Amino acid sequence: MPATKPPAPPADSAAAPRYRWLADELLQTIERGSFADNQALPSERELAETYEVSRDTVRKAVRYLEERGVLYSDHGRGTFVEPSIVRNMSRFLDSFSVDTAARGGLPGQKVLAIEPAAASMAVAGLLGLRPGEALLRIKRTRLINGQPVGLQDALLPASIGQGIDRAALEAAGSLYRLLQEKGIVPAEAIENLTAAAADSEDAELLGVPRGTPLLVCERVTLSERREPIEYCLMKYVPSYRYSTRINRHSNAL
User: Fold this and answer.
1) Which of 48, 64, 215, 230 is the 20 to 30 A CA-CA neighbour of 134?
2) How far apart are CA 65 and CA 80, in angstroms?
3) Between these two residues, 179 and 85, which has the higher pLDDT value?
4) How far apart are CA 130 and CA 23, in angstroms?
């Protein structure tokens, strides 16, 4: 448990839900090293008393951290801290900026275009729109320590992208940060990974020879309400590290 009394939970219901506040507090406690890998968390009752929240809030916070690979439950034994190697295989839907900083790099971006677009039939289907509906297109080169490592071509429904312009994006450095400031919280994503050779435009923007193999990731991002809020086509140079985690299905042999 924390060596000092933790801060009181927020009283403002308009702020982040209490379970999210508690999840953040528990995560910070874990990352400070107060719990070892595979160490059991205190009981639900103890956590509720320590953080002055309801047991239902504790259950929601624990479930939230389990979904993000921070905790795991063993039926009949309790809830435990995932090993650091698993926690570092980030399952959080972080922005490029947050993810790069967590790896020790300096994130950067070059905004190539912010412009209106129309939804193609394919993108409309992914975002739950009608073909031809208005979108906001945001195309950027992503940098790590000043070096280009990827291209991101994002499409957002116009209603979600409203108010996002070049100045705001360059100041924030993160599209997801801007969305959260608008009350739209990216919560989940569905990704499809493939590979492709860099064409002339890709090669020029990334500073690599034409034909260089690129990691291509198509992502549909969902809000906390499970509504599609972004389609993004991402291309990364071979040196870019992409980590994921695979679980064995309970019924798999």
Assistant:
1) 215
2) 11
3) 179
4) 37
Report yes or no: 93 and 188 within 8 Å, Cβ to Cβ: yes
Residue 107's domain comprises: 96-236
Q: Which of 185, 124, 182 is nearest to 156 (CA)?
A: 124
Structure confidence by residue, pLDDT tens digits, 225-243: 889 999 999 999 988 776 6
- Predicted confidence (pLDDT) per residue in 170-186, tens digit: 998 889 889 988 889 88
Same domain? For 144 and 215 the reply is: yes
Q: Are residues 46 and 138 in the same domain?
A: no
Confidence band, pLDDT 50/70/90 cuts, at residue 253: very low
CA 223/CA 186 separation, integer angstroms? 5
CB 142 within 8 A of CB 174: no
Check which CATH number belongs to the domain holding 155 and give it.
3.40.1410.10
Is residue 99 within 8 A of residue 85, CB to CB? The reply is no
Contact status, residue 69 vs residue 87, Cβ threshold 8 Å: yes
For the entire predicted model, the pTM comes to 0.67
Would residue 10 count as lying in a domain? Answer: no
